[in-house]
Amino acid sequence: MSLSTLTCLLLVFVLTGTNAASLTYAKNLSIALSTGYNKELRPVDDQNSNVSITIDMYLISIKDFDEVSGTLNVVAVLIINWYDESLIWDPAAYDWMHNINIGQNNIWLPKLYNLKVSNSFTAVSDSDLKVRIHNDGLITWQPGGLIDVKCNPDVSYFPFDTQTCSIQFATWGYSQSEVWLKPFKKELTLDFYETNGEWSLDKTSTGTSELSDISLAIFNITISRLPAFHIVNTLMPIFLLMFINPLVFLLPCDSGERVGFSLTVFLTFTVFITIINSVLPANSESMSRISYFIFVVLVASGVIASINIFQLRMYHREESLEVPRWLVRFVRILNCQFKSGKNNVNSFCPEDANSNSVTDHERIGQSVTKEHPPVDNIQEMTWKDVVRITDNFYMLVFYVTISVSSIAILVSMSQGNK
């Protein structure tokens, strides 16, 4: 047998012997740790002192936030550490083994409960998990998975809203003098965080509190909605309909489409109210400003439809019916402001009294005419002329109202949560 073959056999024997020895020491260590161990007792020699537990939360992703039910679903992993004074050994006695992994059901575990859970109230645990035990008694437990949290959604500034949800862990059954919980850091760990397409993560924070002498570890998550989807699919169609609605006053009264156009826009706004209400919670305390805005726009659309009905009624009045003098004066003022290009309408606007082409005598006569217009001139205006001029007035009024209200609601929604 060659020297190289003997060397290889010796190396295999040494390595195999070392592994066998390590496995044997691991078995002996496991037996030694479990002998006389009582997992029902808190792992401190002085039972009058508390067990200090640190929790570090690794936020993996934001799965979903349901505004209607007020539920936030996140995927996270908890790194939980504490010291077990019954699980300490000398590494030199066990082939320098500094740590060992055993099933979590074999040692004392803090029963952590999520107090803000939205469904079943159960402890955070998984029977298949292992815990890592270090030779100085440090225990590392890493449960994780989907965590659902009950929140109080505030959709006042939808779709520019910001939500803050709080995850509160407590060791139910132990007072804070027995078990003390505290976050490991001031913020959540985001090393493995994956972004969400609907919500952006603004900030995270941690803290401690107590509830009926029970220690609480609190993890706060603040998220803000990415508004692009709702701007394109909700806000833009609403604003487009708003600016189209007053154009009904440009349609000829003889077209027969004015009332139908107004009612179609009115019904479209009711559909948008239904769509928005389906994605918002039924909460009267924090109703969305856009809901109020659409309601105002809906009322304005109803007013436009009603005005069109009255306008059509005036337009089709008999020519023999006289136009009231007060209405003629009002329409004359509007006509002079709008300066319509039609000859039969421009004739209603009085000539400029300050014109250089008139004499003082004529100027005095014109001033008298303005104060007491002749009956003949008043009767020249027909109901159709009144409708043509007031249509322009109504369109201008509604466009000004829509523009001011649109700017106000956009500024309010975009700046309200800042």
UniProtKB/TrEMBL annotation:
<feature type="transmembrane region" description="Helical">
    <location>
        <begin position="393"/>
        <end position="413"/>
    </location>
</feature>
<keyword id="KW-0472">Membrane</keyword>
<feature type="transmembrane region" description="Helical">
    <location>
        <begin position="292"/>
        <end position="310"/>
    </location>
</feature>
<keyword id="KW-0732">Signal</keyword>
<dbReference type="InterPro" id="IPR036719">
    <property type="entry name" value="Neuro-gated_channel_TM_sf"/>
</dbReference>
<dbReference type="InterPro" id="IPR036734">
    <property type="entry name" value="Neur_chan_lig-bd_sf"/>
</dbReference>
<dbReference type="InterPro" id="IPR038050">
    <property type="entry name" value="Neuro_actylchol_rec"/>
</dbReference>
<dbReference type="GO" id="GO:0005230">
    <property type="term" value="F:extracellular ligand-gated monoatomic ion channel activity"/>
</dbReference>
<dbReference type="Pfam" id="PF02931">
    <property type="entry name" value="Neur_chan_LBD"/>
</dbReference>
<keyword id="KW-0812">Transmembrane</keyword>
<dbReference type="InterPro" id="IPR006201">
    <property type="entry name" value="Neur_channel"/>
</dbReference>
<dbReference type="InterPro" id="IPR006202">
    <property type="entry name" value="Neur_chan_lig-bd"/>
</dbReference>
<feature type="transmembrane region" description="Helical">
    <location>
        <begin position="259"/>
        <end position="280"/>
    </location>
</feature>
<feature type="domain" description="Neurotransmitter-gated ion-channel ligand-binding">
    <location>
        <begin position="29"/>
        <end position="225"/>
    </location>
</feature>
<feature type="domain" description="Neurotransmitter-gated ion-channel transmembrane">
    <location>
        <begin position="234"/>
        <end position="329"/>
    </location>
</feature>
<dbReference type="InterPro" id="IPR006029">
    <property type="entry name" value="Neurotrans-gated_channel_TM"/>
</dbReference>
<protein>
    <submittedName>
        <fullName>Acetylcholine receptor subunit alpha-1-B</fullName>
    </submittedName>
</protein>
<feature type="transmembrane region" description="Helical">
    <location>
        <begin position="228"/>
        <end position="252"/>
    </location>
</feature>
<keyword id="KW-1133">Transmembrane helix</keyword>
<dbReference type="GO" id="GO:0004888">
    <property type="term" value="F:transmembrane signaling receptor activity"/>
</dbReference>
<dbReference type="GO" id="GO:0016020">
    <property type="term" value="C:membrane"/>
</dbReference>
<feature type="signal peptide">
    <location>
        <begin position="1"/>
        <end position="20"/>
    </location>
</feature>
<dbReference type="Pfam" id="PF02932">
    <property type="entry name" value="Neur_chan_memb"/>
</dbReference>
<keyword id="KW-0675">Receptor</keyword>
